[in-house]
Write a structure and sequence with these properties.
AB_hydrolase_fold; six-stranded mixed sheet; alpha/beta; globular; 22% helix; DUF3089; 394 residues; four-stranded mixed sheet; DUF3089 domain-containing protein; 7 helices; 19% strand
């Protein structure tokens, strides 16, 4: 499968599988399927104490503005006092409407790119689920209607996994919910149905709903998608939501944008900047993938990270000082604007990958959907660390 198709499908999944789509019933052609048994180890990509999808090399090359390279090792914290529960985006290459429960390289890769690094702050839980596949999304993108998927199947899988986790693993611990795109849509529905305003909300440290459109009333932080869970505005705030869709600052959402807008009157798409929760600009602490894994780079070949010919042999790079972000709300939408502070006179790259590119053309309506998580990974981890301290002090 081409990387263009993978990336294009990833970008539309937040729209095709939003909360309204998840609320629809299954296709009439879909036969009922048996529930998953999440007591079985193979139904989880990540669980504490295992050598699994989260037990991977996350070593990072830090590239200074002067081109100097240093290695940043990573170490998980097996004794973390809080948990993280993750639902991954559309990555399945299965040739069926919904994926099966056998993890392929694509599921392992997205966990490495988007979730495993949170292991420095929390114990990691990531269930497999029968998501709507890339094949289905390609058919939808092409305008076809002959490949029906059960849009509720993945939601019910995640609900089962969540209930199993609560009954057998949580033991009263605080938990951070993390999702991207289709995963964020599933978690949005889970929060609406099972968490928002219910006793279990007291155990939610925060919900990181990335690369999706969470509706909030214009000028307010709560009252749209959720009636009780408000947007995060300080690192000590608990039970709150961080959500955004990233775009390049000089390429704002066009009129046909799939992200940064919601259809409801009087509502806007939530935008919380992980680098500046209370508003304004902030330095983005990105962890960008050095290889192509279908979710982390554009389909165009990435430019060299440094012009000095030095080899980057780690799976991730960090580029301190290169990127800033700011939530913008205007006629174009409500989105996280990412500015690259390029300096052509220094040896470090002046560009970061992340655009969806088809036939050599950047598809501006999808923004930086491919690196929504990557571009703010360090900031998100810092926020989770501070929120976890606040939760434990409480």
């Amino acid at each position: 499968m081409s990387n263009v198709i993978i990336r294009a499908s990833l970008a539309v999944c937040g729209v095709l599988l939003g909360a309204s789509a998840l609320a629809q019933s299954s296709s009439p052609q879909s036969a009922p399927q048996a529930a998953n048994d999440y007591s079985k180890p193979e139904t989880w990509l990540c669980r504490p104490g295992r050598k699994d999808s989260c037990a991977v090399d996350l070593t990072t090359t830090v590239i200074a503005a002067d081109g100097n390279l240093t290695k940043e090792p990573f170490k998980a914290n097996p004794d973390a006092s809080v948990d993280c529960f993750y639902v991954y985006p559309t990555v399945s290459n299965d040739q069926t409407p919904n994926s099966d429960m056998n993890a392929g390289p694509e599921e392992h890769a997205v966990v490495r790119a988007q979730f495993a690094r949170f292991g420095s702050k929390c114990k990691l839980y990531a269930p497999l689920y029968r998501q709507v596949t890339l094949k289905t999304l390609r058919a939808a993108m092409a305008g076809g209607a002959g490949f029906p998927a059960d849009r509720m199947l993945g939601y019910h899988d995640v609900l089962s996994a969540w209930n199993y986790y609560l009954q057998h693993d949580n033991k009263g611990r605080g938990v951070v919910l993390i999702g991207h795109s289709q995963g964020s849509a599933v978690l949005t529905q889970l929060i609406k149905n099972e968490i928002d305003g219910k006793p279990i909300q007291s155990r939610i440290i925060s919900a990181l709903l990335l690369g999706t459109n969470v509706a909030v009333p214009k000028g307010k932080d709560v009252g749209g998608a959720f009636q009780h869970m408000t947007l995060c505005r300080s690192p000590s705030q608990l039970g709150c939501v961080i959500s955004y869709a990233a775009f390049r600052a000089d390429v704002p959402p066009p009129s046909n944008s799939r992200f940064g807008r919601v259809p409801e009157d009087g509502m806007v798409a939530a935008c919380v900047n992980p680098a500046a929760l209370d508003g304004g600009k902030g330095q983005m602490h990105a962890y960008l993938s050095t290889g192509s894994n279908g979710v982390s780079t554009s389909s165009a070949a990435p430019k060299p990270w440094v012009s000095t010919g030095q080899t980057i042999d780690t799976p991730f790079v960090s580029v301190p000082g290169l990127l800033t972000g700011e939530c913008i709300s205007n006629e174009a939408g409500s989105y996280l604007a990412i500015t690259t502070h390029a300096n052509p006179s220094d040896p470090r790259t002046d560009e970061i990958p992340g655009d969806v590119v088809a036939n050599g053309v950047v598809l501006k309506d999808w923004g930086l959907h491919l690196i929504d998580a990557h571009v703010a990974m360090g900031n998100l981890i810092d926020v989770v660390a501070e929120q976890s301290k606040a939760y434990l002090n409480k």
